[in-house]
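ok so I'm stuck.
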Amino acid sequence: MTKAPDLGPLAVEENPGGDSARTVIIAFGANLGVAIAKSVAAMMTGSASMVAEAAHSWADAGNQVFLLIANRRSARASDEERPLGYGREAYVWSLLAAVGLFVVGGTVSVWHGLTELLHQPDSGEDYLIAYIVLAVAFVLEGTSLLRAIRQLRGEARSYDRDLFDYALETSDPTVRAVFAEDSAALVGIVIAAAGVGLHQITGAAVWDAIGSILVGVLLGAVAVVLVDRNRRFLTGEPGSSELRDAAVARIAELPDVATVLFVRLEYTGPKQIFLVASVDLVGDHAESQVARTLRKLERELERNQHIVDAVLTIAAPDRHDLDAGDHHLP
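replied:
not stuck anymore, here's the structure
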Protein backbone atom coordinates (compact mmCIF):
# COMPACT_ATOMS: atom_id res chain seq x y z
CA MET A 1 0.00 0.00 0.00
CA THR A 2 1.37 3.40 -1.00
CA LYS A 3 2.02 5.79 1.86
CA ALA A 4 -0.06 8.99 1.85
CA PRO A 5 1.93 12.02 0.71
CA ASP A 6 3.52 14.15 3.38
CA LEU A 7 2.80 17.85 3.64
CA GLY A 8 5.54 19.04 5.94
CA PRO A 9 4.11 20.71 9.06
CA LEU A 10 0.67 19.17 8.55
CA ALA A 11 1.90 15.66 9.22
CA VAL A 12 2.16 16.05 13.00
CA GLU A 13 0.59 12.89 14.35
CA GLU A 14 -1.41 9.93 13.18
CA ASN A 15 -4.34 10.31 15.59
CA PRO A 16 -4.58 13.92 16.83
CA GLY A 17 -8.20 13.57 17.91
CA GLY A 18 -7.40 10.57 20.12
CA ASP A 19 -4.54 12.34 21.91
CA SER A 20 -6.68 15.43 22.50
CA ALA A 21 -9.56 13.34 23.84
CA ARG A 22 -7.26 11.60 26.33
CA THR A 23 -5.86 14.96 27.42
CA VAL A 24 -9.37 16.30 28.05
CA ILE A 25 -10.50 13.16 29.92
CA ILE A 26 -7.49 13.37 32.24
CA ALA A 27 -8.21 17.05 32.82
CA PHE A 28 -11.87 16.33 33.57
CA GLY A 29 -11.01 13.69 36.17
CA ALA A 30 -8.48 15.96 37.85
CA ASN A 31 -10.79 18.99 37.88
CA LEU A 32 -13.78 17.04 39.17
CA GLY A 33 -11.79 15.65 42.11
CA VAL A 34 -10.28 19.05 42.84
CA ALA A 35 -13.67 20.80 42.63
CA ILE A 36 -15.23 18.45 45.18
CA ALA A 37 -12.27 18.81 47.58
CA LYS A 38 -12.23 22.60 47.30
CA SER A 39 -15.98 22.86 47.82
CA VAL A 40 -15.75 20.82 51.03
CA ALA A 41 -12.80 22.93 52.19
CA ALA A 42 -14.64 26.16 51.34
CA MET A 43 -17.64 25.10 53.45
CA MET A 44 -15.42 24.07 56.36
CA THR A 45 -13.15 27.12 56.32
CA GLY A 46 -15.35 29.90 54.98
CA SER A 47 -12.33 31.18 53.01
CA ALA A 48 -13.16 33.55 50.15
CA SER A 49 -10.12 32.33 48.23
CA MET A 50 -11.26 28.72 48.64
CA VAL A 51 -14.74 29.63 47.40
CA ALA A 52 -13.15 31.27 44.36
CA GLU A 53 -10.97 28.24 43.73
CA ALA A 54 -13.97 25.90 44.07
CA ALA A 55 -15.90 27.96 41.51
CA HIS A 56 -12.83 27.90 39.27
CA SER A 57 -12.53 24.11 39.43
CA TRP A 58 -16.25 23.50 38.87
CA ALA A 59 -16.06 25.80 35.83
CA ASP A 60 -13.04 23.87 34.54
CA ALA A 61 -14.78 20.51 35.07
CA GLY A 62 -17.85 21.75 33.21
CA ASN A 63 -15.67 23.08 30.43
CA GLN A 64 -14.10 19.66 29.91
CA VAL A 65 -17.58 18.34 29.05
CA PHE A 66 -17.86 21.00 26.34
CA LEU A 67 -14.38 20.07 25.08
CA LEU A 68 -15.29 16.37 24.92
CA ILE A 69 -18.36 17.29 22.86
CA ALA A 70 -16.11 19.44 20.67
CA ASN A 71 -13.80 16.49 20.01
CA ARG A 72 -16.62 14.10 19.24
CA ARG A 73 -18.69 16.35 16.98
CA SER A 74 -15.77 17.81 15.04
CA ALA A 75 -14.44 14.34 14.21
CA ARG A 76 -17.49 13.40 12.14
CA ALA A 77 -16.73 12.61 8.50
CA SER A 78 -17.81 14.96 5.73
CA ASP A 79 -21.08 14.31 3.93
CA GLU A 80 -23.22 15.87 1.21
CA GLU A 81 -24.54 18.49 3.62
CA ARG A 82 -21.07 19.40 4.94
CA PRO A 83 -18.51 18.60 2.21
CA LEU A 84 -15.74 20.24 4.25
CA GLY A 85 -16.63 18.24 7.33
CA TYR A 86 -17.68 19.30 10.82
CA GLY A 87 -14.30 20.43 12.11
CA ARG A 88 -15.40 23.97 12.98
CA GLU A 89 -17.78 22.57 15.60
CA ALA A 90 -14.68 22.17 17.77
CA TYR A 91 -14.35 25.96 17.90
CA VAL A 92 -18.05 26.50 18.68
CA TRP A 93 -18.00 24.21 21.72
CA SER A 94 -14.59 25.47 22.82
CA LEU A 95 -15.93 29.01 22.58
CA LEU A 96 -18.80 28.05 24.88
CA ALA A 97 -16.28 26.54 27.30
CA ALA A 98 -14.26 29.78 27.32
CA VAL A 99 -17.40 31.85 27.97
CA GLY A 100 -18.33 29.46 30.79
CA LEU A 101 -14.87 29.89 32.31
CA PHE A 102 -15.39 33.66 32.34
CA VAL A 103 -19.00 33.71 33.55
CA VAL A 104 -18.96 30.89 36.10
CA GLY A 105 -15.36 31.02 37.25
CA GLY A 106 -14.30 34.63 36.84
CA THR A 107 -17.56 36.41 37.68
CA VAL A 108 -18.37 34.29 40.74
CA SER A 109 -14.83 34.68 42.09
CA VAL A 110 -14.77 38.47 41.67
CA TRP A 111 -18.30 38.89 43.06
CA HIS A 112 -17.57 36.75 46.12
CA GLY A 113 -14.26 38.53 46.71
CA LEU A 114 -15.90 41.96 46.55
CA THR A 115 -18.61 40.81 48.94
CA GLU A 116 -16.00 39.58 51.41
CA LEU A 117 -13.97 42.75 50.95
CA LEU A 118 -16.93 44.97 51.80
CA HIS A 119 -18.18 42.98 54.80
CA GLN A 120 -15.00 41.22 55.98
CA PRO A 121 -16.73 38.69 58.26
CA ASP A 122 -14.75 36.69 60.79
CA SER A 123 -14.63 33.40 58.93
CA GLY A 124 -12.79 31.40 61.58
CA GLU A 125 -10.77 29.62 58.95
CA ASP A 126 -9.25 26.19 59.51
CA TYR A 127 -6.01 27.03 57.75
CA LEU A 128 -4.62 23.49 57.82
CA ILE A 129 -7.54 22.10 55.81
CA ALA A 130 -7.15 24.88 53.25
CA TYR A 131 -3.44 24.21 52.83
CA ILE A 132 -3.92 20.43 52.49
CA VAL A 133 -6.64 20.81 49.86
CA LEU A 134 -4.62 23.37 47.91
CA ALA A 135 -1.57 21.09 47.96
CA VAL A 136 -3.59 18.11 46.68
CA ALA A 137 -5.18 20.34 44.03
CA PHE A 138 -1.75 21.53 42.91
CA VAL A 139 -0.61 17.93 42.38
CA LEU A 140 -3.75 16.93 40.44
CA GLU A 141 -3.80 20.07 38.29
CA GLY A 142 -0.07 19.68 37.69
CA THR A 143 -0.58 16.11 36.48
CA SER A 144 -3.24 17.25 34.02
CA LEU A 145 -1.04 20.12 32.83
CA LEU A 146 1.92 17.78 32.26
CA ARG A 147 -0.29 15.65 30.01
CA ALA A 148 -1.23 18.71 27.93
CA ILE A 149 2.40 19.86 27.80
CA ARG A 150 3.52 16.40 26.65
CA GLN A 151 1.08 16.51 23.73
CA LEU A 152 1.91 20.10 22.82
CA ARG A 153 5.67 19.58 23.08
CA GLY A 154 5.59 16.66 20.64
CA GLU A 155 3.58 18.66 18.11
CA ALA A 156 5.61 21.84 18.62
CA ARG A 157 8.81 19.90 17.97
CA SER A 158 7.40 18.72 14.62
CA TYR A 159 6.72 22.33 13.71
CA ASP A 160 10.08 23.48 15.14
CA ARG A 161 8.14 25.97 17.28
CA ASP A 162 8.36 27.21 20.85
CA LEU A 163 5.94 25.39 23.16
CA PHE A 164 4.06 28.50 24.31
CA ASP A 165 3.84 29.98 20.81
CA TYR A 166 2.50 26.70 19.49
CA ALA A 167 -0.03 26.42 22.33
CA LEU A 168 -1.42 29.81 21.32
CA GLU A 169 -1.35 29.22 17.57
CA THR A 170 -2.39 25.55 17.32
CA SER A 171 -5.59 24.78 15.43
CA ASP A 172 -6.58 22.25 18.13
CA PRO A 173 -8.74 24.27 20.56
CA THR A 174 -9.22 21.47 23.10
CA VAL A 175 -5.57 20.93 24.02
CA ARG A 176 -5.05 24.72 24.06
CA ALA A 177 -7.98 25.10 26.47
CA VAL A 178 -6.68 22.37 28.80
CA PHE A 179 -3.20 23.90 28.77
CA ALA A 180 -4.52 27.41 29.48
CA GLU A 181 -7.03 26.33 32.15
CA ASP A 182 -4.56 24.11 34.01
CA SER A 183 -1.86 26.80 33.89
CA ALA A 184 -4.34 29.31 35.27
CA ALA A 185 -5.42 26.76 37.89
CA LEU A 186 -1.87 26.39 39.20
CA VAL A 187 -1.40 30.17 39.35
CA GLY A 188 -4.80 30.47 41.04
CA ILE A 189 -3.82 27.91 43.68
CA VAL A 190 -0.68 29.93 44.46
CA ILE A 191 -2.78 33.11 44.72
CA ALA A 192 -5.31 31.37 46.99
CA ALA A 193 -2.55 29.99 49.21
CA ALA A 194 -1.03 33.46 49.49
CA GLY A 195 -4.42 34.94 50.42
CA VAL A 196 -5.03 32.30 53.08
CA GLY A 197 -1.49 32.68 54.40
CA LEU A 198 -1.68 36.48 54.69
CA HIS A 199 -5.06 36.14 56.39
CA GLN A 200 -3.50 33.76 58.90
CA ILE A 201 -0.46 35.98 59.51
CA THR A 202 -2.24 39.33 59.73
CA GLY A 203 -5.67 38.27 60.93
CA ALA A 204 -7.17 40.51 58.23
CA ALA A 205 -9.72 38.83 55.96
CA VAL A 206 -9.05 41.48 53.33
CA TRP A 207 -6.14 39.41 51.95
CA ASP A 208 -8.38 36.41 51.43
CA ALA A 209 -10.91 38.59 49.61
CA ILE A 210 -8.21 40.11 47.41
CA GLY A 211 -7.03 36.61 46.56
CA SER A 212 -10.53 35.72 45.39
CA ILE A 213 -10.70 38.84 43.20
CA LEU A 214 -7.29 38.14 41.67
CA VAL A 215 -8.31 34.57 40.83
CA GLY A 216 -11.42 35.94 39.09
CA VAL A 217 -9.38 38.48 37.10
CA LEU A 218 -6.96 35.72 36.08
CA LEU A 219 -9.81 33.54 34.82
CA GLY A 220 -11.29 36.46 32.93
CA ALA A 221 -7.97 37.15 31.19
CA VAL A 222 -7.55 33.50 30.18
CA ALA A 223 -11.15 33.36 28.92
CA VAL A 224 -10.65 36.46 26.75
CA VAL A 225 -7.59 34.88 25.09
CA LEU A 226 -9.44 31.60 24.45
CA VAL A 227 -12.53 33.39 23.10
CA ASP A 228 -10.37 35.41 20.69
CA ARG A 229 -8.53 32.35 19.39
CA ASN A 230 -11.76 30.43 18.76
CA ARG A 231 -13.31 33.49 17.12
CA ARG A 232 -10.42 33.67 14.67
CA PHE A 233 -10.71 30.03 13.64
CA LEU A 234 -14.49 30.27 13.33
CA THR A 235 -14.23 33.25 10.99
CA GLY A 236 -11.55 31.68 8.78
CA GLU A 237 -7.97 31.39 10.05
CA PRO A 238 -5.43 31.14 7.20
CA GLY A 239 -2.57 28.68 7.31
CA SER A 240 0.79 29.92 8.55
CA SER A 241 3.57 30.93 6.16
CA GLU A 242 5.44 27.70 7.00
CA LEU A 243 2.38 25.64 6.20
CA ARG A 244 1.85 27.55 2.98
CA ASP A 245 5.46 27.00 1.92
CA ALA A 246 5.02 23.27 2.56
CA ALA A 247 1.85 23.24 0.47
CA VAL A 248 3.56 25.08 -2.39
CA ALA A 249 6.45 22.61 -2.33
CA ARG A 250 4.08 19.63 -2.30
CA ILE A 251 1.99 20.94 -5.22
CA ALA A 252 5.13 21.73 -7.22
CA GLU A 253 6.21 18.08 -6.83
CA LEU A 254 3.04 16.78 -8.44
CA PRO A 255 3.32 15.37 -11.96
CA ASP A 256 2.04 17.67 -14.71
CA VAL A 257 2.52 20.84 -12.58
CA ALA A 258 4.91 23.34 -14.15
CA THR A 259 4.53 26.22 -11.68
CA VAL A 260 2.43 27.17 -8.65
CA LEU A 261 1.11 30.70 -8.89
CA PHE A 262 -1.46 31.04 -6.11
CA VAL A 263 -2.14 29.20 -2.85
CA ARG A 264 -4.72 29.83 -0.16
CA LEU A 265 -5.07 27.69 2.96
CA GLU A 266 -7.87 27.96 5.49
CA TYR A 267 -8.50 25.88 8.61
CA THR A 268 -11.82 24.04 8.63
CA GLY A 269 -11.14 22.29 11.94
CA PRO A 270 -8.35 21.00 14.18
CA LYS A 271 -5.46 20.14 11.82
CA GLN A 272 -7.87 20.22 8.88
CA ILE A 273 -7.11 22.41 5.87
CA PHE A 274 -9.06 23.57 2.82
CA LEU A 275 -6.57 24.19 0.01
CA VAL A 276 -7.14 26.34 -3.07
CA ALA A 277 -4.36 26.77 -5.61
CA SER A 278 -3.77 28.06 -9.11
CA VAL A 279 -1.21 26.22 -11.22
CA ASP A 280 0.28 26.13 -14.68
CA LEU A 281 0.32 22.63 -16.17
CA VAL A 282 3.01 21.08 -18.31
CA GLY A 283 2.14 21.04 -22.01
CA ASP A 284 -0.82 22.43 -23.90
CA HIS A 285 -3.73 20.02 -23.60
CA ALA A 286 -7.36 20.19 -24.59
CA GLU A 287 -9.82 21.59 -22.05
CA SER A 288 -11.32 18.18 -21.26
CA GLN A 289 -7.87 16.71 -20.61
CA VAL A 290 -6.93 19.67 -18.38
CA ALA A 291 -10.06 19.13 -16.26
CA ARG A 292 -9.25 15.44 -15.76
CA THR A 293 -5.65 16.25 -14.89
CA LEU A 294 -6.64 18.85 -12.31
CA ARG A 295 -9.08 16.46 -10.65
CA LYS A 296 -6.42 13.74 -10.54
CA LEU A 297 -4.00 16.15 -8.85
CA GLU A 298 -6.68 17.23 -6.36
CA ARG A 299 -7.26 13.61 -5.35
CA GLU A 300 -3.53 13.17 -4.89
CA LEU A 301 -3.41 16.13 -2.49
CA GLU A 302 -6.50 14.91 -0.63
CA ARG A 303 -4.71 11.67 0.21
CA ASN A 304 -3.09 13.67 3.00
CA GLN A 305 -5.29 13.13 6.07
CA HIS A 306 -5.15 16.82 6.97
CA ILE A 307 -6.43 18.19 3.63
CA VAL A 308 -10.23 17.90 3.70
CA ASP A 309 -10.62 19.36 0.21
CA ALA A 310 -8.34 20.66 -2.54
CA VAL A 311 -9.36 22.84 -5.48
CA LEU A 312 -6.91 23.46 -8.32
CA THR A 313 -7.46 25.88 -11.17
CA ILE A 314 -5.45 26.97 -14.19
CA ALA A 315 -3.48 30.15 -13.57
CA ALA A 316 -4.35 33.37 -15.39
CA PRO A 317 -1.67 34.43 -17.89
CA ASP A 318 -0.81 37.62 -15.97
CA ARG A 319 -0.20 35.93 -12.60
CA HIS A 320 3.38 35.89 -11.30
CA ASP A 321 5.15 32.72 -10.23
CA LEU A 322 5.34 32.39 -6.43
CA ASP A 323 9.02 31.59 -6.79
CA ALA A 324 9.54 34.95 -8.46
CA GLY A 325 8.58 36.86 -5.35
CA ASP A 326 4.77 36.72 -4.98
CA HIS A 327 4.79 35.42 -1.39
CA HIS A 328 1.72 37.13 0.08
CA LEU A 329 -1.53 35.40 0.85
CA PRO A 330 -4.28 36.79 -1.39
